[in-house]
Specification:
Strand order of the largest sheet: 1-2-4-3
Order of helices and strands: HHEEHHHEE
Helix content: 25-40%
Radius of gyration: 16 Å
Number of strands: 4
Structural class: alpha+beta
Length: about 160
């Protein structure tokens, strides 16, 4: 059913010449449908850009964590990676980068003051260390439509 609804949305968008804003936690849907992506954490956009840039060259550690946890078609040993900790409730969001308490790369600079969304690589990221980190994305030079993510049932090829 999900695939049919997503196909219909895609067909209508093309027919009417309009854009579609999808809000989802399903990165498979994002890879099937989106040209651009914005990744949110604790009420803020932490990274945005063209889908291929965000997936292949993430600029924020949360994006890297999400990508590392994507189930892939190839066989893996052990459990999927996870991001340590939990998202705090809004009344407990920390000062600075909201992801800092869970971030393996966080420094004092990440925890102090506002962290603005700024250009980094081909994307925008809300990370004071974005330009110095070499984060891991989806490997290879795939077209964003054919990223190695488990099929969502949508057929957008």
């Amino acid at each position: 059913m999900q695939g049919q609804v997503l196909d219909l949305i895609g067909d209508l968008a093309k027919e009417l010449g309009v854009g579609v804003l999808l809000i989802t936690h399903d990165l498979g849907v994002v890879s099937d449908l989106a040209d651009k992506a914005a990744v949110m954490y604790a009420g803020e956009i932490v990274e945005s850009g063209r889908l291929v840039d965000v997936f292949h060259r993430p600029q924020h550690p949360y994006t890297e964590g999400l990508i590392s946890a994507i189930p892939r078609n190839e066989v893996r040993e052990g459990e999927l990676p996870t991001i340590d900790g939990v998202v705090p409730p809004p009344w407990l969001w920390p000062e600075g980068c909201h992801f800092a308490p869970r971030c393996p790369y966080a420094t004092d600079a990440c925890r102090n003051g506002d962290v603005a969304l700024r250009p980094s690589g081909a994307s925008q990221a809300r990370c004071v260390r974005a330009d110095e980190l070499d984060l891991v994305g989806v490997a290879g030079d795939h077209d964003p439509i054919s990223l190695p993510i488990i099929d969502t049932g949508a057929n957008h090829g």
